[in-house]
Amino acid sequence: MRKIYLSTMFTIMTILLLSACSSNANQPEVNQDDIVIGLSVPSLSSSFWTSIVYGAQSEADRLGAKLIVVNAGGDTKVQDQISQIQNLIQKQVDALIVGATDGKGVAPIVSQAVSKGIPVVGLSSLPESDELVSEVGADHYKIGQLLAKGMGDALKGTGQVAMMAGPAGQHWATDRAKGFQETISSEFPAIKIVSIEHTDDNRNGALTLMEDWLQRFPDLTGVFTATDDIGAGAADAIAAANKTGGILIASSNLSPVGIDYMKRGLITFETAEKVVVQGKAAAEQAYNAVAGKPVEKQVITDVLYVDRNGIDSVDLSEINAPDGFKP
């Protein structure tokens, strides 16, 4: 009886093993040398996203993967970005990296990609989705905090400040503005925030808004700008009004434009995040998700506070793409 039982168990185990092997054989194997990753960004007119692409391309090259980059053409081009991501899905890319024009607006297309078995990595400007395989970025609230403390100390805890809060619908801009506003309110209550406006991430709109503020708020002593592309526009308007130094500018990203403006005393101080490192990390997590390797659910890079005297001590290779790089 015992012999019959053992024989039966052996037969069952053999059948199960063969069945498992057959099932695995029917699943397509991933050739790691043929992995294709789609990267969707809001705007390559921004040095930030150009540096993101440089980092992602560098890592994709190192891993032997192909990177397809699509550019929505502006922070407000939500439908264009959705269409571009749809095209990447139709091309059957193996993974997607998305820096969102609008986190809520692109959420449905992210879900569509995931439903088709395409892992999606959120990058800096995150889609509003709990289906992301990984989130890569910086602590944007901390960026706002650091800029608020720098501004509050420089103004000795008093004065009037206005905020150029960056593009509406992008969580990084919302978090930076929130960090700045809440820190000013809690740690420097004598500083009055006289205006908060959302702005596209470019200098033209910022210049026009700053010109308006100079008329409306003649006692303005400081301006928060979500990025230094925005900060450059504000600085140009302030310089044209002969008020450079009288109105301080707190900004972020430490782009080539920002570095130039800081060295010339037009932007007072900045925070910097390791943008190139973020691009590399996003490409690595996307690749790993396809290749069956461990994926980090969240990758948060360091944030630096930099004033005019500290620029030369910063490793810019982790922040900006090399001069002349074109995506």
Total domain count: 2
Low-confidence stretches: 1-28
**CATH T-level topology of the largest domain:** Rossmann fold
Radius of gyration: 24 Å
Largest sheet: 6 strands, parallel
State the CATH superfamily name of the largest domain: Response regulator
Structural class: alpha/beta
CATH class label of the largest domain? Alpha Beta
CATH architecture grouping of the largest domain: 3-Layer(aba) Sandwich
N→C terminal distance: 73 Å
Strand order of the largest sheet: 2-1-3-4-5-11
The DSSP helix count reads 10
Helices and strands, in order, run as HEHEHEHEEHEHEHEHEHEHEE
Kindly state the mean pLDDT as a whole number?
Answer: 91
How many strands in all?
Answer: 12
How would you describe this structure to a colleague?
It is found in: Cell envelope. This protein has 327 residues and is α/β, with parallel strands linked by helices. The chain folds into two domains: 32-138 and 275-300, Rossmann fold; 140-273, 3-Layer(aba) Sandwich (Rossmann fold), CATH 3.40.50.2300. It contains ten helices and twelve strands. The strands form two sheets. The protein has a six-stranded parallel beta sheet with strand order 2-1-3-4-5-11, with helices on both faces. Helix 6 (171-187) links the parallel strand 6 (159-164) and strand 7 (191-197). Helix 5 packs parallel to helix 6 (171-187). The longest helix is centred in the first third of the chain and has 25 residues, at 2-26. It is elongated, with a radius of gyration of 24 Å.
